[in-house]
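chain below, 186 aa
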Amino acid sequence: MILKESPLQGIKNGSIATVAIRELPGLHTIDLRVAPGSSSHAAVAEALGIDLPEKIGSSRKSSDGSETYILCLAPDWWLIVGFENAEQRLAELRLNDEYHFSVVDVSGQRTTIELEGPKVHEVLAHLWEQDLREKSFPVASVSQGLMAKAPVIVWHIAPLRYRIMVRSSFALHLWKALVDATEEWM
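prediction:
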């Protein structure tokens, strides 16, 4: 496995008492493309040992106690986060001409910024148009769009905790925008 360079060097800001921001560098991330409902889809899910979420904009945590998540980004597109040996589990399936799917390690493509605390909704409201309150965007919800003109994936991972996955080239720009949005609570 190639070590990925962190664009923000694991930087942190703020306080959990209001809102804390930190980079989560080096999350292992895989793009999975497979036709839903196909035999390939069933074989991939079985090999990974995780049911792929079917609803676009949802995520699922593995039931094995690990920090592995699968995010459904489109009808045939999932992002697998934190599953270190996903490629090895799917290697045998790739050799079988019966199964058609794509698996690409995109760990170096994005970095993840996590925000947590009682003021997280207020901070994100400065930069994100979608209503992120629990009723509209419950835990396990995922959305894609632009935040401070940077393409991002916003993921509600736990109560009062969100992860923003941003392309590495936009990481510093987004970090500065998020820190600026937290100023009134620091």
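The two ends are 39 Å apart (CA to CA). The mean pLDDT is 90.
thats it, cya
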